[in-house]
């Protein structure tokens, strides 16, 4: 403990506002890197600011050990919460870059059809479509999306 006091002796009698400054610095680094790691030590620094404000006579060693323990505890708890609840992105984000896959099961209007391929309209947008082998359709009829292959939708006629 004496070695910690010698190394971090500058913390003796220091204002709690230095812990607040460290918290803001770590939070700024977190926002710049999006690591989702530095937020926990930043919160620990805020806790230390409150502790040093409540008890200004804390030794440098106690401050360092307490900051380390709080950082480790908050990081562990934060990781557990992240694993349990995720990032809150929701289910829709899984198909963010698969726009056509969002239309599976939906029914659109056939605009053009020839030789098993054509164009359908879904939500006001035109999509290239492909019908199963041997199936036909006509403009104005309805078609249900069964699969998305990139920007081409596999469809089937709806009666």
TrEMBL record:
The keyword Disulfide bond does not apply. InterPro entries: Membrane_assoc_protease, NA-bd_OB-fold, NfeD-like_C. It is a multi-pass membrane protein. The chain crosses the membrane at residues 6-29, 36-54, 60-82. Keywords: Membrane, Transmembrane, Transmembrane helix. Its main location: membrane. It is found in: Membrane. Gene3D superfamilies: Nucleic acid-binding proteins. Residues 102-156 form the NfeD-like C-terminal domain. PANTHER family: INNER MEMBRANE PROTEIN YBBJ. This is NfeD-like C-terminal domain-containing protein. It comes from Paramylibacter ulvae. The lineage of its organism: Bacteria, Pseudomonadati, Pseudomonadota, Alphaproteobacteria, Rhodobacterales.
């Amino acid at each position: 403990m004496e070695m910690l006091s010698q190394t971090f002796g500058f913390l003796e009698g220091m204002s709690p506002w230095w812990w607040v400054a460290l918290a803001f610095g770590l939070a700024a680094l977190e926002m710049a890197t999006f690591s989702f790691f530095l937020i926990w030590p930043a919160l620990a620094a805020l806790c230390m600011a409150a502790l040093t404000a409540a008890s200004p006579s804390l030794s440098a060693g106690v401050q360092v050990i307490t900051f380390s323990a709080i950082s480790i505890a908050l990081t562990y708890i934060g990781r557990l919460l992240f694993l349990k609840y995720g990032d809150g992105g929701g289910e829709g984000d899984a198909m963010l870059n698969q726009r056509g896959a969002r239309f599976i099961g939906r029914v659109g209007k056939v605009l053009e059809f020839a030789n098993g391929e054509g164009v359908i309209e879904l939500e006001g947008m035109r999509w290239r479509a492909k019908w199963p082998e041997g199936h036909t359709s006509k403009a104005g009829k309805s078609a249900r999306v069964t699969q998305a292959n990139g920007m081409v939708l596999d469809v089937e006629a709806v009666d």
